[in-house]
């Protein structure tokens, strides 16, 4: 069915409300908008569905929510034992329509005879994962679009093990969704009826307390081993993290936790930030103001559904003199503040720097003005990993059969850190669904999961949650900072010590947004062109190239191909003989292509030089392809 036929089918469907049909009539003369809303159905992927909210097949609305839930119900009833009695847990965040979408989800499940456990208010995504496991539910659903813009929302599905569904389960759900030809085939009852029939049960504060106690059980240092006077500024960015994180930090003895009152309020428009993404340094702008007033040691920010966390650290006693300095930047790095982790005021400042200065000097002038240094996901992950392993070793609780899991686009610094403690590291595809399912696989073989993380500021300790958890991470980050402060060190000092021990690692990410049907075609062409040939880099010989879609690792020296033991995915990776690498992958949740770069140098200057060369050549090739299509 072409997009116009689909548009008119929706427009004339009596199942739609009059208000929703009027919305479709309002775009009747806008062919581009009709095309964008109907050229394809909103795709159900490995994390569920995510998209802009509006009426249309390629938009998130109550109809696509109900359609998806009816398909999920069909899958559960046919493939998951005792799914009706075990039920499905549903959580939602602060976004527009999140509660409405969650309630429609519960109503469709209940109409299919499947019990729904619905949280009585906003909750962090990781608490949903915890609930699925502890209740023994057949599945879980969270209504969230994480850090996307305000006009987005999403529907993320979890398996009975508490982890996000894997591709094979997603494919089976898609089969069930495709069986539904008309909206009238969707089963639906009222929320009142669902409750009266005991098919919808509300989860509240009593359940929260169980989760909080489990989080606190992951503490690695006693109260007397910490400087609990440490000053922390925390922002939930208008999301779900406010109550759980503040509660747990208070109960762990942190007395000086400061929160911006405006950013603590749930706000579907995220009105105090340009983007509620903690990977952007600018989300700390208000926190920095508070931090400077009180002398905060660290700043913490969580995304709206509270599964990811970013931290910034106070940089003390910085002095600049002459054209060059010893650079406190050695405690940070170019990768921590590159243009894709920052925007707005920072970029304006950077662009206005003296053009005669090198990159380091320009970055330093901005950083020293702010006094707070942003740590990226690779740096924070390495710090957390080292702290967890070191504290466990000190207490005699570092198991010989312990293991760590990271993604293929996460820095190899984690492998170096874990290797220092004789702990193996396993790689997975990007996404915590792969990290947690790999952890389950290894635990079934007798291993003990210690830590999992990815470069996009997602971390997990413990095995009672099967997704990245910013509530757990916030507690451990605060504890880690307080532990080092007790010993006269900051997290920047601790990071520098890791560089001295393991070598200098430098990471950089480029994100190129290519929206709509045209953007989708450009992304396909980009992947196809790089698949044919990686560009040659002067002074950097290629060792291996990996095509994760075909599972082939090609060895340039031996001129041999070998298969890799990682599920197929549309990702390409180029590895150089010095261990540096870059990878290219389309985002699974946003209309963009991401280029991950990682460089190893004898020092910072050498790594930055490699970055500049590779980045220039790779981006030039990408720009050429985009303009050609």
Characterization of the model:
With 629 residues, the chain is an alpha/beta fold. Helix content is 41%, strand content 19%. Helix 11 packs parallel to helix 19 and helix 16 packs parallel to helix 17. The radius of gyration is 24 Å and the shape is globular.
Strand-residue proportion: 15-25%
The shape, in one word, is globular
Helix content: 40-55%
| Average of the residue pLDDT scores | 91
Uncertain regions: pLDDT < 50 for 5+ in a row? 318-370
Oligomeric state of shown chains: single chain
> Which structural category fits the helices and strands?
alpha/beta
The radius of gyration is 24 Å
Write the SSE topology.
Blueprint: H1 3-11, H2 18-25, H3 31-38, E1 49-52, H4 62-79, H5 83-86, E2 88-92, H6 98-111, E3 116-119, H7 125-135, E4 139-143, E5 152-158, H8 167-178, H9 191-196, E6 200-203, H10 205-216, E7 231-235, H11 242-251, E8 256-259, H12 261-264, H13 285-294, E9 298-302, E10 309-314, H14 345-351, H15 359-370, E11 372-375, H16 377-394, E12 402-407, H17 413-420, E13 425-428, H18 432-444, E14 448-454, E15 458-460, H19 470-486, H20 491-502, E16 504-513, H21 516-532, E17 542-547, E18 552-555, E19 560-563, E20 572-576, E21 581-586, E22 592-601, H22 604-628
Parallel strand pairs: 2-3, 2-4, 3-6, 7-8, 7-9, 12-13, 12-14
Antiparallel strand pairs: 1-5, 4-5, 9-10, 10-11, 14-15, 16-22, 17-18, 17-20, 18-19, 20-21, 21-22
């Amino acid at each position: 069915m072409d997009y116009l036929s689909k548009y008119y089918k929706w427009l004339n469907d009596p199942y739609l409300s009059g208000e929703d049909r009027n919305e479709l009539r309002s775009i009747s003369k806008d062919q581009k908008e009709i095309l964008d809303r109907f050229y394809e159905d909103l795709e159900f992927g490995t994390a569920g569905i995510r998209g802009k909210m509006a009426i249309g097949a390629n938009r998130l609305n109550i109809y696509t929510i109900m359609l998806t839930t009816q398909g999920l119900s069909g899958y559960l009833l046919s493939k998951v034992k005792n799914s009706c009695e075990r039920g499905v847990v549903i959580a939602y965040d602060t976004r527009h329509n999140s509660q409405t979408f969650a309630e429609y989800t519960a109503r469709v499940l209940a109409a299919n005879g499947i019990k729904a456990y619905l949280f009585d208010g906003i909750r962090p995504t990781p608490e949903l994962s915890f609930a699925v496991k502890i209740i023994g539910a057949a599945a879980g659903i969270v209504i969230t679009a994480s850090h996307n813009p305000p006009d987005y929302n999403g529907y993320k599905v979890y398996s009975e093990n508490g982890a996000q569904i894997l591709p094979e389960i997603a494919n089976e759900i898609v089969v069930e969704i495709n069986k539904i030809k008309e909206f009238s085939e969707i089963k639906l009852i009222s929320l009142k009826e669902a409750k009266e029939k005991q098919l919808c049960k509300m989860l509240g504060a009593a359940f929260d307390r169980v989760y909080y106690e489990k989080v606190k059980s992951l503490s690695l240092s006693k109260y007397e081993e910490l400087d609990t006077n440490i000053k922390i500024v925390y922002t939930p960015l208008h999301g779900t993290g406010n109550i759980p994180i503040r509660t747990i930090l208070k109960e762990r003895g942190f007395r000086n936790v400061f929160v911006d009152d405006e950013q603590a309020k749930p706000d579907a428009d995220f009105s105090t930030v340009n983007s509620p993404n903690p990977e952007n340094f600018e989300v700390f702008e208000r926190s920095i103001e508070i931090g400077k007033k009180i002398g905060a040691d660290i700043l913490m920010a969580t995304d709206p559904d509270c599964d990811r966390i970013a931290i910034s650290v106070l940089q003390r006693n910085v002095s600049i003199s002459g054209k060059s300095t010893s650079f406190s930047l050695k405690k940070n790095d170019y990768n921590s503040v590159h243009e894709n982790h920052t925007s707005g005021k920072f970029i304006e400042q950077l662009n206005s720097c003296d053009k005669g200065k090198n990159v380091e000097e320009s970055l330093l002038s901005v950083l020293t003005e702010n006094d707070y240094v942003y740590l990226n996901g690779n740096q924070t992950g390495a710090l957390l990993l080292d702290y967890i392993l070191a504290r466990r070793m000190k207490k005699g609780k570092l198991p010989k059969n312990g293991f760590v899991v990271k993604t293929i686009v996460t820095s190899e610094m984690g492998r170096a850190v874990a290797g220092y403690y004789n702990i193996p590291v396993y790689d997975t595809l990007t996404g915590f669904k792969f990290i947690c399912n790999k952890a389950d696989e290894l635990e079934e073989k007798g291993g003990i999961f210690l830590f999992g993380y990815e470069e996009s500021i997602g971390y997990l300790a413990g095995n009672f949650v099967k997704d990245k958890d910013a509530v757990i991470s916030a507690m451990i980050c605060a504890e880690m900072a307080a532990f080092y402060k007790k010993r006269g060190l900051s997290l920047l000092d601790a990071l520098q010590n890791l560089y001295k021990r393991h070598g200098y690692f430098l990471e950089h990410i480029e994100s190129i947004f290519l929206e709509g049907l045209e953007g989708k075609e450009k992304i396909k062409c980009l992947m196809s062109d790089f698949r044919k040939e990686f560009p040659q880099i002067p002074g950097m010989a290629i060792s291996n190239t990996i095509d994760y879609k075909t599972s082939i690792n090609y060895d340039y020296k031996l001129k041999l191909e070998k298969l890799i033991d990682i599920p197929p995915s549309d990702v390409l990776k180029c590895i150089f003989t010095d261990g540096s690498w870059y990878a290219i992958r389309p985002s699974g949740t946003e209309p963009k292509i991401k280029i991950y770069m990682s460089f190893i140098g004898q020092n910072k200057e050498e790594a930055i030089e490699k970055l500049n060369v590779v980045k220039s050549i790779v981006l030039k090739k990408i720009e050429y392809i985009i303009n050609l299509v």
